[in-house]
Specification:
About 30% of the residues lie in helices and about 15% in strands. It is built from 10 helices and 10 strands. The strands form 2 sheets. It has a 5-stranded parallel beta sheet with strand order 2-1-3-4-5, with no helix packed on it. A 5-stranded parallel beta sheet has the order 7-6-8-9-10, sandwiched between helices. Strand 1 (about 15-20), helix 1 and strand 2 form a beta-alpha-beta unit. It starts with 15 loop residues before the first strand and ends with a helix.
Length: about 325
C-alpha cells in the first residue's frame, strides 16, 4: 500500500477522493501529483483538462460509492453534487478536508485551509480496477444515449459548443445533466453557473450581465427558469456581445420527479407541468435567431433514466 506523505499536522491521504468545485484551477499540480481519483465539477475549470483525464471519474457521481474511499479532499468552492449532501446525512463517518478560499467549509465538519496550503505529497498507487469499472459504466451509459437520441440527456450531449465559448448553466437540472453527459474534449470553454433555493430567479438577466464581448456566450437553462425571467431580453439592443440561449424545455420541473424524498407527493403539485413554447417570446424580443429550444421526448427520457438506474443496481 502506498501512502502520500504530508507535513506534520495534516491528514494522511491513503485512499482519498478529490472533489474539485468551482475555481479549483490552482490545485492542478497537486491533483496530478497525488494521482487519486478525481470528481471535477464543470465550474472547477479542470473537467476538460487533458492531463487530468486518466484520473477523472467519468460515469457520474454514483461511481463514488464504488471507490471505498477513506477520505474526501474538497478543493475550490462548495460542490453541487448530491454526494456533498450525503457527507452530512448518510456518510458522516467519512473524514473531509477542505481547501478553499471561501471563509466557510459548506459542510458541518472538516478542517478548512486556503488552496495555497495544499501540501506536498508523494504519488499514490493508481486503482486500475476502479478506473476500469468507471470507464465500463461510462461506455454503457453512452450506448444508452445512442439508442435514445431524442431523450433529454442525448439532446444536451449533442449540443454544438464552439471553441473558447463562455457557457452559463442554470438552474439545478442543466448543471447536473451537463456534468453527466457534456463532452470532456478540451475546447477552451469557461463554465459559469447559478443554482440554489432561489437560483431560479433572474438567471437570464445574470447571463446577459456577464456576457463577454470578446467570446461566444451560450446560456443553457430549463424552461421554468426562463419563465421566471421572461422580461430579461429587454437589454439585448444595448448588449454588445454574441450570445445564444438554449432552452431545455421538458415542460416542467422534471428534476423533482427524481428526488427520492418527493416520490410520495402528488407530482402535479411540484412539477408545474405546462405546454408552453418559446418561439413567440423570442420573436417578441427579436432574438428568434439566437434561441434554440430543445424539446425532448419525455418517454425516451424516462427510459434513459430507468436504464441508467439499472446500470447501478
Amino acid at each position: 500500500e502506498t501512502t502520500a506523505v504530508q507535513p506534520a499536522g495534516t491528514p494522511a491521504f491513503r485512499k482519498p477522493l478529490v472533489i474539485l468545485g468551482g475555481h479549483a484551477q490552482r490545485a492542478r499540480d497537486f491533483v496530478l501529483r497525488l494521482n487519486a481519483p478525481v470528481y471535477a465539477e464543470p465550474l472547477s475549470g479542470l473537467r476538460e483538462d487533458p492531463a487530468l483525464q486518466p484520473l477523472m471519474i467519468t460515469s457520474g457521481e454514483r461511481m463514488i460509492a464504488r471507490g471505498n474511499f477513506d477520505r474526501v479532499i474538497r478543493i475550490g468552492n462548495v460542490p453541487a453534487l448530491r454526494f456533498w449532501r450525503d457527507l452530512d446525512e448518510t456518510r458522516t463517518e467519512l473524514p473531509v478536508t477542505h481547501y478553499s478560499d471561501l471563509p466557510f467549509p459548506g459542510l458541518t465538519r472538516g478542517e478548512l485551509h486556503p488552496i495555497d496550503a495544499l501540501p506536498d505529497v508523494e504519488p499514490l498507487a493508481r486503482d486500475d480496477e476502479f478506473f476500469a469499472r468507471d470507464r465500463e459504466q461510462a461506455a454503457r451509459f453512452a450506448q444508452l444515449l445512442d439508442a435514445e437520441p431524442q431523450s433529454e440527456l442525448a439532446l444536451l450531449r449533442a449540443l454544438d459548443i464552439p471553441q473558447n465559448a463562455r457557457v452559463y448553466l442554470g438552474n439545478s437540472l442543466p448543471i447536473r445533466e451537463w456534468d453527466l453527459v457534456a463532452s470532456r474534449e478540451p475546447r477552451g470553454i469557461t463554465i459559469e453557473a447559478n443554482r440554489g433555493a432561489n437560483g431560479i430567479d433572474g438567471q437570464l438577466s445574470t447571463f446577459f450581465g456577464q456576457c463577454d464581448p470578446a467570446r461566444e456566450n451560450i446560456c443553457i437553462l430549463g424552461d421554468l427558469t426562463v419563465l421566471y425571467d421572461l422580461n430579461a431580453p429587454w437589454i439585448v439592443p444595448q448588449l454588445d456581445a454574441n450570445f445564444r440561449i438554449v432552452i431545455l424545455n421538458n415542460r416542467g420541473g422534471r428534476i423533482f420527479e427524481r428526488v427520492a424524498s418527493l416520490r410520495a407527493m402528488n407530482k402535479q403539485l411540484i412539477v408545474n407541468e405546462h405546454a408552453i413554447r418559446f418561439d413567440a417570446w423570442a420573436r417578441m424580443f427579436g432574438i428568434e435567431d439566437r434561441v434554440t429550444e430543445l424539446v425532448p421526448d419525455l418517454e425516451a427520457t424516462r427510459r434513459v433514466w430507468a436504464r441508467y438506474d439499472e446500470l447501478w443496481a
